[in-house]
Amino acid sequence: MTRANFPPSGQGPQPGSVESLLQELIGETQKLHARRNPLRHAIAWALAVCIAAVISNVTVPGAHRAFVTAGCYFKYFTEPGVTRPSASSFQRFGVTSVTQVSGSAFSVTPEDQGYVWFGADMPFTRYCDYRIDFYAELVGPANPQLGGYGYGIGVRGFTVNGVPSATTIQYDPPFGGLRITPIPCCANSPGYNPFTSPSVIAGVYRHWRIDVIGSNAYVSFEGKGYGQMNLGSGDEVLLRVWNASVDVKDMTITPIKPSM
Length: 260
Prior knowledge:
With 260 residues, this protein is an alpha+beta fold. It is 22% helix and 39% strand. The protein has 3 helices and 14 strands.
């Protein structure tokens, strides 16, 4: 780093110099990413703290926020660039089975009838902000006489005593499409109007992409933006299913660069 990147004595940081300094710090941290040993990790952490200090001095008041930001940068630069969850990554809730069906595909299946609560959750703290990308196929209904069936996806949720809590996007053929619904309160409430689509049917793989950034998630369905979900404060990815199975394949989770 060059001395010219720092503001003159007695003056606040200038936008151009701050941007240049951040770029140099980020560049040096990236160089350490591929060299995995304790000393280089310590240096990467120190650089991440420097990055956070610069950010907090300009845009983010408060030391706590600065160190949170530093931790996020450290994860972004030092954790693997892609995570590929499998059946073993998930813990079931309710009477549910989670089965690996191929190298990149697994199935989540209720082992009892009813609507609540069946599914699986995966604690995920490897990155602060991240993108989940996968394909899912609804297989059902298991019992046509029950009427309702579908699956839901939640992020930054949690599960207590087998009861999931999260904001979810529901793939819900009986309701005619997609619905953003909080659970456990409102899974079956008719007041959550769906995005009506004839493509929301069983027996076909559909592509999902969910960008989890801070307290929001931005949902893309079949390559088109669907909407935004306001999230909770948990650290779990949830797959809920009712009166049907969901087959998931090619799931990847990649980090999103922390916001400055």
